[in-house]
Amino acid sequence: MSLIERYRDRLPVTAGTPVVSLGEGDTPLIPADHLSGLVGRPVWVKVEGANPTGSFKDRGMTLAVSKAVEEGARAVACASTGNTSAAAAAYAARAGVECIVVLPAGKVAYGKLAQAIRHGARVVSVDGSFDDALAAVRGLAGSHEVTLVNSINPYRIAGQQTIAWEVLDQFGEAPAVHALPVGNGGNITAHWMGYRDQGAAPKMWGFQAAGAAPLVHGGSVESPQTIATAIRIGNPASWSGAITARDESDGLIESVTDEQILEAYDLLAAREGVFVEPASAAGVAGVIAHRHRLPRGPVVITLTGHGLKDPEVAVSGSGMGEPVEPTAEAVAEALGW
Question: How many angstroms separate the CA atoms of 302 and 215, rounded?
Answer without folding.
Answer: 19
